[in-house]
Specification:
By secondary structure, this protein is α+β, with helices and mostly antiparallel strands. It folds into two domains: 2-118, no CATH class; 129-287, Phosphoenolpyruvate Carboxykinase, domain 3 (Alpha-Beta Complex), CATH 3.90.228.20. Helix content is 19%, strand content 36%. The chain has helices at residues 111-118, 154-165, 224-231, 242-258, 270-282, and strands at 2-7, 10-16, 40-47, 56-60, 64-69, 72-78, 84-90, 95-101, 129-139, 142-147, 168-171, 174-180, 183-187, 202-213, 218-221, 261-266. Strands 1-2-3-8-7-6-5-4 form an eight-stranded mixed beta sheet, with no helix packed on it. Helix 3 (224-231) crosses helix 4 (242-258). It starts with a strand and ends in a 19-residue tail after the last helix.
Length: 301
């Protein structure tokens, strides 16, 4: 069995003898035609038992451990009691093996599991893309991104824009940022967080909104330097990989120079949509020749 996906400008191939734990939503991300050779290949295998193997531990949490053996990384996924149920091992720069412990194979289901175990979101920066922790809505042909730490209102603001402006939710938790020259596109990513919504799309970014809670609605466009510092906290990276950090630094500086980024302290009600739209319209990010046609609320996703 095989699964060939197109994510941003990269083709990712998953191979397995008989079982790949994905669900039907991944079919929308399948590649058709185009590149003959995948950029990254994952081979899925099973093992009787798995245990951490490596000389140097790079990261340890209750849910996974990362080891380095020579120049190659291995990620081990554990239950709270320390039992390893899966692992992802780097065979070469572009080839990886995902191992499942046979006793726990029945626990693995769905695209979230597959992408979590592949650690794929950490590897996209070497493909020239960044994974941003954000909700994405499609509104009037462009993507509006809401980013903040968990629990700060990304899903709430996205839902308000859906209801008031007929915007379309593209993903509730992750956005792939892809650069074309000095323009940036928001692209689909199969992991969707609690929203369960993840669709494929390649859409110009209208603006990135960094959210904070407040009793009043106040938006401020950030200079690129300040934006770089704040947005960097929401980019998915391996902090122990200096190459990744250097690549992300250059990409993020370009993104912040060429993309409007706003700090937005706001309420969790309809007034937040109106106030933000007014600021974006004032700054020329929403415009049309017929001002009456652009009166709030408008738009289709």
């Amino acid at each position: 069995m095989q699964l060939n996906l197109r994510l941003g400008n990269s083709t990712i191939l998953f191979l397995a003898d008989n079982y790949i734990p994905w669900d039907d939503r991944l079919a929308a991300f399948c590649a058709s035609g185009g590149k003959k050779q995948p950029d990254l290949t994952y081979t899925i295998r099973t093992a009787g038992t798995l245990r951490p193997d490596g000389h140097h531990c790079l990261k340890r949490t209750p849910f996974y451990q990362v080891y380095m053996d020579g120049q190659r990384e291995s990620w081990y996924y554990t239950f709270p009691d320390g039992t390893v149920y899966a692992a992802c091992r780097e065979d070469s720069e572009n080839r990886f093996s995902i191992w499942y412990a046979e006793d726990f194979l029945s626990y693995l289901h769905g695209n979230t599991t597959l992408f979590y175990l592949s650690a794929l979101e950490y590897r996209m920066v070497r493909r020239g893309d960044m994974i941003l922790h954000a909700s994405a809505i499609l509104d009037q042909g462009q993507a509006l991104l809401f980013s903040a730490p968990s629990g700060m209102g990304k899903s709430t603001q996205a839902a308000l824009w859906q209801r008031l402006r007929n915007s379309r939710l593209a993903n509730g938790d992750r956005v792939l940022l892809h650069r074309e020259n000095d323009s940036w596109l928001a692209c689909g990513w199969p992991m969707a967080g609690s929203s369960g919504v993840s669709i494929p799309y390649h859409t110009p970014v209208r603006a990135l909104i960094l959210l904070d809670k407040s009793s009043q609605n106040t938006a401020r466009r950030l200079p690129s330097g300040e934006a770089w510092n704040l947005v960097g906290k929401e980019i998915v990276l391996r902090p122990w990989e200096q190459t990744d950090l250097s690549l992300a630094d250059g990409l993020l500086r370009n993104f912040c120079r060429n993309t409007p980024v706003y700090a937005y302290s706001c309420r969790k009600d309809e007034s937040a949509v109106t106030a933000l739209y007014d600021v974006l319209e004032r700054d020329g990010l929403y415009s049309c020749k017929n001002s009456a046609a652009c009166s709030f609320p408008i738009g289709q996703g």
